[in-house]
Amino acid sequence: MIDARTKLLALIGHPVAHSLSPRFQNAALQYLRLPFVYLAFDIPPERLRDALEAFRVLGVLGFNVTVPHKEAICPFLDVLEEEAKVLQAVNTVVNREGKFFGYNTDVYGFQESLRREGVVVSGKTFLLLGAGGAAKSALFVLAKEKAQKVYLMNRTHERAVALCAWARNVLGFSCEVLPWLSQEVQAVHGIINATSLGLGGEVLPLPWEAFPSLEVVIDLVYHREGTPLVWEAKMRGIKSFDGKYMLLYQGARSFSLFTGVSAPLEVMEEALFGGF
Ligand SMILES: NC(=O)c1ccc[n+]([C@@H]2O[C@H](COP(=O)([O-])OP(=O)(O)OC[C@H]3O[C@@H](n4cnc5c(N)ncnc54)[C@H](OP(=O)(O)O)[C@@H]3O)[C@@H](O)[C@H]2O)c1
After folding, report:
1. pLDDT for 125-157, tens place per residue?
2. Does the Cβ of 131 fall within 6 Å of ligand 1?
3. Cβ 213 vs Cβ 149: under 8 Å
4. CATH fold for the domain made of 7-104+246-273
5. CA of 31 to the centre of ligand 1 (A)
């Protein structure tokens, strides 16, 4: 029940109307009868600073951050924790006595989705498509879990080069940048789509014949009916899954950071996938 003691949790992004976070965060809060409510706010980039100030004044206890604010928010936070500091990207903020602590739970979400699906990274070769925030989180995990080699491709070549330079300088991990949809890849075990292609049903025109050793195809995009990339991989007999579990686990970790309580995963999963 909402009463005078109910505290606010939030999501900020632009746009946010499509987000599934309010649905599964509120389901978990209600299930555990916690005195919080979770709302989504559409904040354009030029109002980010004002929104953070308003959150401080209102005593918002925590909030998630999505596109396009994940990197832009960093200078406004008091403390960057762990992965957030390395990635300079935040998707979760916790307000502790007026101080804003920034976390990156996308990394945990991706890692857990790999674990759940039994994907081995160590010693394997991956092709990573994309060079935005999601690709950066995925590359961090591939480096941390000791992938043998990563090929990086992005529509805007310069962004792939910049991501590769970040990996080398910050993570001490080398990857190889190739032209977008190039066939010059060899012995790839896994493909990760970290572009937004597939969100609107677009097909990724991959040169499938160039990947005879392919074991798994991972799409970070998620969709109610599965994504075109996942369908295509499965049709070719290759293990494949989309970004649903990454979404679930990043949200579960955020929930624990906000509330100090373990997330009721099954409740969140039902709220999330029940609507899929
Ligand atoms: N499952 C999850 O929990 C989760 C979490 C985060 C993100 N995601 C998914 O990952 C996607 C990317 O997120 P992000 O945060 O990295 O976004 P972002 O920073 O805006 O990056 C978007 C990426 O998509 C590429 N792209 C966009 N339109 C394209 C097109 N028509 N053809 C080829 N490439 C295109 C961009 O290439 P350019 O550099 O050339 O523009 C860039 O690499 C999102 O759409 C979302 O579905 C999922």
Report:
1. 999 999 999 999 999 999 999 999 999 999 999
2. yes
3. no
4. Rossmann fold (3.40.50)
5. 33
